[in-house]
Design a protein that fits this description.
Elements lengths: L3 H14 L22 H9 L2 E4 L3 E7 L3 H6 L14 E7 L5 E10 L2 E7 L3 H10 L7 E4 L4 E7 L3 H5 L12 E4 L2 E9 L2 E9 H7 L8 E2 L2 H10 L36 H9 L5 E8 L11 E4 L2 E14 L5 E8 L8 E3 L8 E3 L10
Parallel strand pairs: 1-11
Antiparallel strand pairs: 1-7, 2-5, 2-6, 3-4, 4-5, 7-10, 8-9, 9-10, 12-15, 12-17, 13-14, 13-16, 14-15
Helix pairs in contact: 1-4
Length: 362
Amino acid sequence: MNTPLANASRIASGIASGMTPASAAPPASNPLPVLPRPSADEFDAIARHGAYMPLTQFGVIDVSGDDAASFLHGQLTNDVQHLDAAHARLAGYCSAKGRLLASFLCWRSGDTIRLLVSKDLQAAVQKRLSMFVLRAKAKLADASGELTVVGLAGDVRGALSGVFDALPDGVHVQVDGAAGSLIRVPDALGHLRYLWIGPKVQVDALLPSLDGKLKRVSPAVWDWLDIRAGEPRITQPVVEQFVPQMVNYDVLGAVNFRKGCYPGQEVVARSQYRGTIKRRTSLANVAGEADTVRPGAELFHSDDPAQPCGMVVNAACAQGGGVDLLVEIKLAALDGGSVHLRAADGPALRFLPLPYGLPAES
């Protein structure tokens, strides 16, 4: 039977497998490329004087119409209905089983709500969301080709003051200007970070004015900074692997437990209130390069080599060598022994402190 529920099941399967929602034909979009290791100068630029980086690993979905906010409010894990023009919010998009299909940064731009999403998921997630619009006055559009997304990190306020009249004064505070939107995102290793999203022609014309003040670096540096900020991002290899709490989204403010229903809400709420959160995301480093350490790789504990104890969520080349990781892992696996990549005799992980605390789990 070709019902919306049946379609939803097929689409969820399509996202998880990397196929288009409409069929099991070609992938919904190309996998994210493996970015080469940034140079030492690119890493050092963040601490020395600041840097900027165009972020091609992201796509943007625009949601417009009278019912845009209420529609998204009923689909995402966070409160979109009361999202104002001065703030951005993290949110997840779950399957009916409470597993994350995508993660977003959401903000308003005029009458439009924008969703920043991993580029490899943008097409499939947009199509899935569109299927549930039904009678709502909401329209989804791919804005990726019209916008440029830029990350800025370090001592960048002076350079940004030449583009924006005011700068955001807190995390997830947003300001709008003639050049687009500027959103402050969580610091990484004590360095300020901002996202600048604006019209492609205008932003691209302004970027050369930053070159005398900031160093342009690889977008791989942003991926590393996101990891050091402890902020997981859902990409194609880990679709439908995690309930939001497994990637610390409850701690990061990406889940509102007081809002109304959304797909998977009962599973997410049950995990929160029945003390069933036995897996969390931790920060770690492992020897290797980004092309050998990929999201979705399994982890194994020295005391239980027969079954995986966790999974790599995100990976990026680290400034000090090796690859920094955000890994979803059984809490019990952190109590002793060692954790290894891909097999119990694989490279050992070295765990690092997250920049925020996690609640004690019962």
